[in-house]
Amino acid sequence: MKRIFDILVSGIGLICLSPLLLIVAIWIKLDSPGPVFYRQVRVGRHNKDFRIFKFRSMRIGSDKGSLVTIGGRDPRITRSGYFIRKFKIDELPQLINVFIGDMSLVGPRPEVRHYVNYWTPQQMHVLDVRPGITDPASIKYRNENELLAQAEDPEKYYIEVIMQEKIKLYLDYAENSSFWYDIKLIFQTFWVIIAE
Q: CB-based contacts of 105: which residues, under 8 Å, 6+ apart?
């Protein structure tokens, strides 16, 4: 039922949101040189890599340095990027990943291989389920960039503190997920975005 729900909602979402997606794509293209999408490799279900769809919110080559984004005014972020990140619009193209089966609407956020390499064997059970666009950790750490901006060493703080707390929430979700819990998390995500 979860997979059928994912296909239906992501398909309908892509159709209904197509005017917005087109406008954002044009804005990104006019705002800075480079592609509209950022296709970063993430780790998915069963420890398999896949390429995630995101609207590009940073300047070309920004991923050559630190993989963490620091604060609301990271100089690598484009003008359009600040806006689409604030309202999570950069995540909307992931509906494509959901539709084709790489992701689910709800599930642990897919991490890059660099950070998954730090996971323990127990933590790797996060990869037993399909990754998602939103989950309890996404809601709790919606202001993650601001937390990292306050850290003396953002990369270390992410690995040793934030990532560890996220993984606990991921594992809890993997063990206790249900269709109705997913529905609840989707509405909570919308509420958090609107409230901010």
A: 5, 6, 9, 10, 98, 132, 133, 134, 182, 186
Q: Which residues contact 25 (CB under 8 A, 6 or more apart)?
A: 36, 55
Whole-number pLDDT of residue 150 = 87
CA distances from 163 to 11, 24, 108, 181 (A): 31, 30, 12, 23
| Location of structure tokens 């909570």 | 188
Range of the domain at 187: 2-195
Element (H, E) at 41: strand 37-43
**Residues 98/139/194/111 CA torsion (nearest 10 deg):** -40
Q: Rounded distance, CA 195 to CA 191, Å?
A: 6
Report the number of distinct structural domains present in the chain: 1
Residue 64: both structure tokens together: 């050559």
pTM of the full structure: 0.89
pLDDT tens for 85-134 read 888 899 999 999 999 999 999 999 999 999 999 999 999 999 999 999 99
